[in-house]
Write a structure and sequence with these properties.
Blueprint: H1 3-10, E1 18-26, E2 40-54, E3 57-61, E4 65-69, E5 75-90, E6 103-106, H2 109-118, H3 129-144, E7 153-155, H4 160-171, H5 179-186, H6 190-201, H7 205-222, H8 227-233, H9 239-250, H10 254-257
Antiparallel strand pairs: 1-5, 2-3, 2-4, 2-5, 3-7, 4-6
Helix pairs in contact: 2-3, 5-6, 8-9
């Protein structure tokens, strides 16, 4: 199937219940426009880095995780590093039982094998019996997949004052102002800022800022920046402090993170 035909098929709710494709060496791209699909979408990164923005916030899709986007969910996509992986689009009726919200799921080798097989199917308006069985097994695996214990989801607040702070911190993660200073900048009391941040994002201001820095750290590391440069750009007082924080979150130092992501975990 050609790219144009495949795109048209993806944007149709009817037709085959599952459309799969493998992506090799997807070049870095700036953030796409806001868009949605009639079908449910799975995005898997085998190597590289992809950032996805939804109405609920931002998440960074690292290797060997599956991003799930429900049918009709508006989102944007940014390819940060040259990426290999796969994508799957499923008809709305096949998405029954999947999470109602965008999610990051754990992946396994069976999923990978099934998608690679499905990506070789000839173009058709419907799946044959054998293909339908493969789709059923794949969707069963997806429904059973545990929502990943993913440290890189960054929920965005709705309150305009908090949103102003959040956008500023994402743009300037090196800004080390205290909670009290940020509250004053936004016209809030420190107590109100703390309470609102937790109620709107589910995490404390300090936790949110760390998540924002982690997200930016991965983007910079994926772009080839040195660890010391990243630590300085994020406002850490020392490289060792940044490395310690990174290791606590990911179980390995930043210099080895992408080098060791070539095999599933």
């Amino acid at each position: 199937m050609g790219h144009q035909e495949q795109f048209l098929r993806i944007e149709q709710a009817d037709g085959p219940g599952l459309i799969a494709f493998v992506v090799n060496d997807l070049a870095p791209e700036r953030e796409s426009v806001w868009h949605s699909h009639l079908r449910g979408q799975f995005m898997y990164v085998e190597s590289g880095l992809v950032c996805v923005r939804t109405r609920l916030g931002l998440w960074t899709l690292t290797p060997h995780r599956v991003g799930w986007m429900p049918p009709g969910e508006e989102h944007t996509v940014s390819v940060i590093q040259s990426t290999h992986g796969w994508g799957v689009f499923v008809a709305p009726q096949a998405a029954v039982g999947m999470p109602d919200e965008p999610s990051v799921l754990g992946a396994n080798e069976l999923m990978r094998a099934l998608v690679h097989r499905a990506s070789a199917w000839a173009d058709s308006d419907r799946l044959d019996d054998g293909q339908q069985r493969i789709m059923d097994v794949l969707m069963d695996e997806m429904r059973r997949a545990r929502i990943a214990d993913h440290p890189l989801h960054l929920p965005m607040p709705d309150d305009r004052r908090l949103l102003r702070i959040s956008r500023k911190l994402l743009a300037e993660p090196h800004d080390n102002r205290s909670l009290e200073a940020w509250a004053d900048w936004a016209g809030l009391s420190a107590r109100s800022l703390s309470r609102l941040f937790r109620s709107e994002t589910g995490c404390s201001f300090a936790q949110w800022r760390q998540q924002a820095r982690l997200s930016r750290a991965l983007e910079r590391l994926a772009a080839g920046e040195q660890v010391g440069e990243v630590a300085d750009a994020l406002g850490y007082v020392s490289v060792s402090a940044f490395v310690a924080m990174f290791r606590r979150q990911f179980g390995r130092p930043p210099a080895r993170y992408f080098a060791q992501r070539s095999a599933p975990v």
